[in-house]
Write a structure and sequence with these properties.
The structure is a single chain. The protein is an alpha/beta fold and 802 residues long. Helices cover 39% and strands 16% of the residues. It contains 21 helices and 23 strands. The strands form 6 sheets. Strands 3-2-4-5-14-13-10-8 form an 8-stranded mixed sheet, sandwiched between helices. A 7-stranded mixed sheet has the order 16-15-17-18-23-22-21. It has a two-stranded parallel sheet with strand order 1-12. A hairpin with a 2-residue loop joins strand 22 and strand 23. Helix 4 (85-108) crosses helix 17 (567-585), helix 11 (256-274) packs antiparallel against helix 16 (544-562) and helix 16 packs across helix 17 (567-585). The longest helix has 24 residues, at 85-108. It starts with 10 loop residues before the first helix and ends with a helix. Mean pLDDT is 82; it is low at 157-163, 204-218 and 246-250.
Length: 802
């Protein structure tokens, strides 16, 4: 539960369920412990505090795992001299620590995930062959994690303290056999399990785990199948543990020096190996975007447009032009390479970006690209789902040297979005990544990794690969049926990966969404870290990591020598401490600062009334596009440090529900002193947080509701047509002056002011008495838009830019 292997639970659900399951074990160990009371309380309380602290951590899942392992090790220490209980808890602690140790190695050793994934895939294909139905399952759905957890309980086969060694070996062999057979059997029965689960859903016994309930879609209920495997293996585990002696086991001799030396070496090597170090933001790094169309072509292959006045609706927001604007404002230099690639054109380029290539690169181009990477250049490859634009052959041939391949599928989450179903592997790019919204991965192709130097970056742990349909061309985008079918990949879909090649770095995304105009306000920090990583050549000496792994192996050996009984457990626990310490001690890396004259921060830390996802009921996707059309570079404030307000030109608060801190208000006053703009929109009797902000501006939102309203025509002398001047409000409330006269009134209804402006220092304060004004239905949705409201907002923001 703590590691997320028992279903797409939210982090808080996994944390508290794990804590709930640990409490009986810890209470049992406390009751049977012969240790002093003070020590018992200390060992009992520390893991619980660690689990609770993970709630406030950006690295919550790893802290949860660490908390569970620490709790079990503490229970083993409490009961080490107790009859039978000590041996049971030592085995449980060792099993959890070894599985966690394996997870750390898979996260940090290049090529390890490839081998692990290939083994799980082979097991699922065997199960499919035996059951007569095709199966392709990732490690999570194949149950190998759960099986390993129980298999380690059986080691060693002849434990000290056994009443009958022959009986002990026999019972341990039964458990090992169950761990080998149970996953195969469970995978073969996946179809019936799914059907029973669907019947339970329809009977309202279980809640659906996907947004398309009631129809039979294999893969939905199967997300909870590993939990069934865990419950099934409890029976042979109890049988195997029944052979342990009821006499207290004699403690193993301690050797203090090997323990101390091994622990220090392990902590240092683990810290160095797992630290997701990111270099400082480069200034002037050159990013080249390749467009295979010749320079004289009037139809570029890469859409580099961005939101512009006259193009409305989120579908008209452009594709990849905005990320050039963001990168240039952050100090990068961007250029477009049209036509063929040769070594001379790559001179002086720090990173080459390839987006949905539509033709196979020639041998000369292929050689030029990889020679460039080998010398230290960066390569960023962005592709899409189901061979869109015919990209699959060109991109797969391009990536052959590193063993990354695009599949002919669409990677879908088993939930509505990738939230709580995506796994962020420890990496410089994912450092500080808290939520799937921060990465903005949408629908793209899954990646297959076969290179020994490849590493996953983003993995869709609870997702499936919907095979494409070549008959569904045109607007259909070659997409499949949007549902899982047996034979399609289920679980642990690789969504982004990287590999080292020579001195350079290669990063591959199976989806382009993160780099598109609509995504950048959420994903700017993630995208900037990606480019910062790609443009930086490998700096470590070639021998450094192998040397660290040798130190790591020697440290584990020292720990085993120091305490044979718990040596491996201690080694695993200390390694986890080292890995998590490096994540906890390294603060979230701030993205490169943007041009102070263009940065617009949209508050997402004090809101609770509108969803941050696009195209949801009540979402406000029109805000970023409106700001981009006005020349701003919008960033959601939850993705930027609060100090970014010191460089912002505009700050926007939409229906805040929490009052801002005094330090934030001081920064907002400083923003107005610099001539910036503060926009506050809210309404209703819950506008106290908004009024706290508007106190700076000398305005307040009254308790007088106006209901749905239309502007009476006080929008100034704009020569726009009457249609463009109709401003509609969903839930209007009156704006009142409070000790400062209005500089301008922008909208009225029934004699009341609905939108007004005051001047504070050199800046502008804009108040809109409607917290729902910026909703997609009232401002700008995917295709539909309210032209009068769009033009109204354009006029307000244009004055700010002037």
């Amino acid at each position: 539960m703590a590691a997320g292997w028992t279903g797409p639970l939210t982090p808080s659900a996994g944390r508290y369920l794990a804590l709930l399951c640990l409490l009986p074990a810890m209470a049992w160990a406390y009751a049977r412990s012969l240790a002093p009371t003070r020590l018992r309380w200390l060992l009992w309380a520390a893991p619980g505090l660690l689990l609770l602290a993970s709630a406030a951590s950006d690295n919550g899942e790893r802290l949860q795992v660490l908390g569970v392992v620490t709790a079990l090790c503490a229970a083993a220490l409490l009961t080490r001299t107790a009859p039978r209980a000590g041996e049971v808890m030592a085995r449980v602690a060792r099993s959890a620590a070894l599985v966690s140790l394996l997870q750390v190695f898979l996260h940090h050793v290049p090529g390890a995930f490839c081998a692990w994934d290939a083994a799980a895939d082979a097991m699922s294909r065997l199960a499919g062959h035996l059951s007569g139905q095709p199966l392709r399952l990732g490690p999570t759905f194949s149950g190998v994690w759960v099986a390993l957890l129980f298999a380690f309980l059986a080691l060693p086969l002849s434990p000290r303290g056994a009443v009958d060694a022959r009986r002990a070996r026999g019972r341990a062999a039964v458990l090992l056999l169950a761990c080998a057979v149970a996953p195969i059997a469970y995978m073969a029965l996946l179809g019936p399990i799914e059907r029973l689960g669907q019947l339970a859903i329809q009977a309202m016994i279980l809640p659906p785990v996907i947004h398309r309930p009631l129809a039979f879609h294999p893969g939905q209920v199967s997300a909870l199948a590993p939990l069934l495997l865990l419950l099934a293996l409890l029976v042979p585990a109890q049988y195997a543990l029944g052979h342990l002696s009821h006499a207290p086991a004699s403690p193993a001799p301690r050797r203090l020096l090997p323990l101390v030396l091994g622990g220090l070496a392990l902590f240092g090597a683990g810290y160095a190996l797992t630290a997701p170090l990111l270099p400082a933001p480069p200034r002037g790094a050159v990013i080249a975007i390749h467009d295979p169309e010749p320079p004289d072509s009037d139809r570029p292959a890469v859409d580099l447009s961005s939101p512009a006045i006259g193009r409305y609706g989120l579908a008209q927001a452009g594709m990849f032009g905005a990320f050039r604007n963001y990168l240039e404002a952050a100090g990068y230099t961007t250029r477009v390479l049209r036509g063929h690639i040769d070594p001379e054109r790559l001179e002086g380029v720090d990173a080459l970006v390839v987006i949905n290539p539509q033709r196979v690169y020639t041998d000369a181009e292929h050689d030029a690209i990889w020679r460039y990477v080998d010398k230290g250049g960066g390569l960023l490859v962005l592709g899409d789902h189901t061979d869109l634009f015919g990209l699959q052959e060109p991109v797969n041939r391009l990536l052959e040297p590193i063993g990354i391949r695009f599949e002919f599928d669409s990677a879908f989450s088993l939930r509505r979005h990738w939230r709580h179903t995506q796994e962020f592997f420890p990496h410089a790019i994912t450092a500080g990544l808290v939520d799937a919204l921060d990465a903005q991965i949408g629908t793209g192709a899954s990646l297959t990794l076969r290179g020994l130097r490849t590493r996953p970056i983003l993995v869709g742990r609870y997702g499936f690969g919907d095979l494409g349909n070549r008959a569904n061309g045109g607007q259909g985008g070659l997409l499949g049926d949007y549902r899982y079918e047996l034979g399609e990949r289920l679980g642990d879909m690789v969504l982004a990966a990287d590999a080292d090649h020579g001195k350079g770095r290669v990063v591959v995304f199976g989806d382009t969404s993160s780099f598109q105009s609509l995504s950048l306000p959420h994903a700017y920090a993630f995208v900037e870290r990606t480019f910062r990583y790609v443009v930086t050549p490998q700096g470590a000496a070639w021998w450094s990591k192998p040397l660290l792994w040798l130190i790591l192996a020697a440290a584990i050996a020292l720990l085993v020598i120091g305490r044979p009984a718990l040596g491996v457990t201690a080694a695993a626990a200390v390694l986890l401490v080292a890995a998590d310490a490096c994540h906890a001690l390294h603060a979230r890396p701030a993205p490169a600062p943007l041009d102070p004259g263009r940065l617009a921060l949209v508050d997402t830390t004090h809101v609770g009334r509108w969803p941050l996802d696009y195209f949801e009921e009540g979402s406000m996707g029109g805000i970023p596009t409106a700001l981009m059309r006005a020349g701003y570079l919008p960033v959601m404030s939850g993705r930027m440090p609060e100090a970014a307000l010191d460089d912002a030109a505009l700050a926007m608060f939409i229906a805040p529900v929490e009052a801002v801190a005094p330090a934030t208000k001081a920064r907002l006053r400083s923003l107005l002193e610099r001539g910036g703009t503060l926009v506050v929109a809210s309404g209703g009797r819950g506008a106290s947080a908004a009024n706290d902000l508007l106190e700076i501006c000398g305005m307040r939102i009254s308790d007088s509701p106006l209901g749905p309203a239309k502007d009476e025509g006080t929008t100034g002398d704009d020569p726009a047509s009457s249609t463009q001047r109709v401003v509609q409000f969903v839930d209007a409330w009156a704006i009142e002056s409070k000790g400062r006269p209005f500089h301008a009134v922008h909208a009225r209804y029934a004699g009341a002011v609905v939108s007004a402006e005051t001047r504070v220092f050199h800046g502008r304060c804009l108040a809109i008495g409607d917290g729902r004004f910026f909703g997609d239905k009232n401002l700008e949705g995917e295709f539909a838009f309210q032209l009068g409201n769009v033009k109204f907002l354009e006029r307000l923001l244009e004055k700010g830019r002037r």
